[in-house]
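Q: Could you fold this chain for me?
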Amino acid sequence: MSCYFCSFQWSGYRYKVVILTLGLCLAHSVWGGGNKLCKENDKVLLEIEVQAKTFPEANKMARAELRQELERTANKRKLDIAKYDQALEAMWREMIKNVYSFKEKPKKRFVITFWISENKWNSLFPRKDAVLPNIAAKLNSDFFTSGCNCYALIIGNSKYCDLPALQSVDYDTRQLSDILSELYGYKTAVLTDAGKDKILQAIDMFRKFLREKDQFILYYGGHGYLDTEIDQGYWIPIDTESGTSSDWISNADITGQLKMIKAKNILVISGSCFSGTSDRKIPENAESSGLYSRMALTSGGLEPVPNGGDEKLSVFCKVFYKFLKENEGEINAGDIAEKIIPEVKSELSQTPCYRSIRKCGHQSGGGFRLKRVKQ
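A: Sure. Below is the predicted structure, expressed as structure tokens.
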């Protein structure tokens, strides 16, 4: 069992909200002031600890804080408070009646835990990716036709709950999909503003259907984080809290998925960080298409950097896409990397990187080749 604390000051009394995690809980970034929303089975739990002289006084303080948190949540989700006032009031009235537990502690401290059913919570505050189409329904056997052996999953997260929006991501993902499908003959699936479950579900569908003769490109644009102490990178889904790595997608998670994909050649392109790559630079003309390859081309930053001016693409994607369009035949991804690195470095204080991915089936000397099929 684990608890998260956040202190507040209200009406001259000091109290703190404690979110109680029982069993396997999922934290979502909806509560203000650094609080965490947790669920146990089908219940949403909120434990509030207050310091007061009597229980009625403590209960009154806890109820008031609960109402304020619901309003803060509505504001964060950009709900019209006036329009949803009755719904908020109804939810608050139900939660104050649903006392999960009550404890009296030393030094005039009281702990009250309120709850509401997860279904009722989601009726007013649905998770953002809950309204997305079911990606598994789209990525079925009809998508993976026998007439195509080049596939791409393009993930673009731009509208976050707790992090700044990334204006260039929508353009980056749309443009890449157009270039790969129209010029290089790829069958592309675009997933935008998705949570952790949707992203992993989509990658898993490619694991199920891709064959050895296939090529696969996995692109991610969105916020990322690199933990330098453990050399672990993370992709951050849209519905998670910025400081909660348990809800992020670690690059180790991605590497584990790639290891199970049968496609001979895989290229990860990341506008964010991607750890777990080899330290060795790929020598020129050393890539062979006959070997299994697991390669990563990264922007060198933790998030896409807008180009500015009239350009809507990020700097990395603007340069990368330019060379994809200029290519007229078949080219190693490593050759493209060698061309884009100096251009990106000239505009940003970051250096793109092209390396093999460790521990997921890469064969030394293997590389990723892109063949243009339409001029």
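A (continued): The radius of gyration is 24 Å.
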